[in-house]
């Protein structure tokens, strides 16, 4: 149960602050994609961060941190646009580290929470920046409270 809730929190963090802000695909031959006709030899840009912040997909509360939006799965959270949630990409070239990254995050969080509770330090300044990946410009200072 706790691990499942952790999954919701990790999903919501990856939605708001997707480490990879975009992916590209090379179009080899002319292809129809939904309503679009894509000509050959173009690079197709998939703006992950923009999709993750689109109120038409997520609702008016799109900018709020609400892990519970994932409680009934990605389809429900995205209003049946599952391809709008792409922290690890999609398709044959999806991230090979997907499961590893999620399990590692859950293990690390579990090891911390077994020993400490934590609060955000007043020194923290919220400033996500894009330096190859999305990251906190000034780090994330937390105050640990031993249990
Ligand atoms: C939170 C952590 C991570 C995020 C958000 C992430 C995200 C991504 C994304 C968006 C892609 C592009 C997928 C696509 O083009 O459809 C990708 C590809 C890839 N990732 Fe990750 N990744 C993460 C962790 C990892 C880890 C831990 C590893 C290795 C242990 C890894 C290895 C790879 C590799 C090798 C590819 C290229 C796959 C291919 O082109 O066939 N990633 N990742």
From TrEMBL:
Sequence intervals crossing the membrane: none
Gene3D superfamilies for this protein: Cytochrome P450 (1.10.630.10)
InterPro entries: Cyt_P450 (IPR001128), Cyt_P450_CS (IPR017972), Cyt_P450_E_grp-IV (IPR002403), Cyt_P450_sf (IPR036396), Cytochrome_P450_Monooxygen (IPR050665)
Annotated binding of heme, by residue: 95
Localization per Swiss-Prot or TrEMBL: Membrane
Family to which the UniProt record says this protein belongs: Belongs to the cytochrome P450 family.
The name this protein goes by in its record: Cytochrome P450, E-class, group IV
């Amino acid at each position: 149960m706790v691990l499942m809730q952790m999954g919701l929190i990790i999903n919501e963090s990856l939605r708001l602050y997707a480490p990879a802000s975009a992916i590209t695909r090379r179009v080899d031959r002319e292809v129809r994609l939904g309503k679009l006709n894509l000509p050959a030899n173009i690079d197709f840009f998939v703006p992950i961060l923009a999709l993750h912040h689109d109120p038409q997909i997520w609702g008016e509360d799109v900018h709020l941190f609400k892990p519970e939006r994932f409680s009934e799965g990605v389809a429900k959270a995205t209003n049946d646009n599952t391809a709008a949630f792409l922290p690890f990409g999609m398709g044959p070239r999806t991230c090979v580290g997907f499961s590893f990254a999620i399990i590692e995050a859950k293990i690390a969080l579990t090891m911390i929470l077994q020993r400490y509770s934590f609060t955000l330090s007043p020194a923290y300044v919220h400033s996500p920046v894009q330096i190859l990946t999305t990251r906190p410009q000034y780090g994330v200072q937390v105050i640990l409270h031993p249990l």
